[in-house]
Amino acid sequence: MTTTPPFGRALCAMITPFTDSGELDLGGARKLADRLVADGCDGLVLNGTTGESPTTSDAEKTALVRAVVEAVGDRASVVAGVGSADTRHTVELARSAEAAGADGVLVVTPYYSRPPQAAVEAHFRRVADAVGIPLMLYDIPGRTGTRIEPDTMLRLAGHPRIVAVKDCAYNLLGSTKVIARTSLAYYSGCEELNLPLYAVGGTGFVSTVANVAPRQLRAVLDAYDAGRVTEAARLNRLTIPLAELMMASGLPGTVTAKALLGAGPVREPLQPAGREAVDGLRVAYEALQGSSPSGL
After folding, report:
1. Listed GO molecular functions (predicted)?
2. Is 166 designated active site?
3. Mean pLDDT of 37-54
């Protein structure tokens, strides 16, 4: 595990609250950010998949970063998603995030065009060279169509501002090899791999489920760090039913998180969860709350 995690261990991939009319709700964002930090989040990742980045404007993205930075101050890190399919646009977003006060940027592999590995590497280096804050690479081939191959990760690890990875590659072997050979901080981006990745030297997680259960997810890491491995596994098992419903039920995590939080509508093409799905989510959420140790 990295001695000093660059952005903390327990990070929430925060939803973007909207008003009933679908406008950006900065007041709601400030309140949610404050609550998440009070409930144990070391960092907040904004304008990612969960934050509905495909349907928010550049101006909205910058306003959200500025508002959340003001709300949390130095109590937590703020990482801004700046990914796009266009390197030039990604650089612009990264510079705007830095100017708005972000502590780092999350940069996804360019999608749709499926660039070869040399182009993927060049893309990340262009962004890293354009800003003065650290980068977290986002490896999620299931959405982008292209993964960041381990050999590419090894080369990128030499850049002084490329410090972390949000890992959604579902390749524990490849991730373990990179962890063993670099100082990159690996954050699980898939709740079912939070504990397994942590156990092989990962740094923590960037979690959608943390929007609604930040204490419970953090407790798994705390127990593991304290040497209570069996307890960490037990606490992790408690989170799985809710995580499965939120992330693997056929509905996007943004939709399920907003359904539980009541944080306003989602933007099209997403659609809100139906009554049956919401009822199921609430049952799982209440079960997790009821089974959690006192104080969580």
Report:
1. 4-hydroxy-tetrahydrodipicolinate synthase activity
2. yes
3. 97
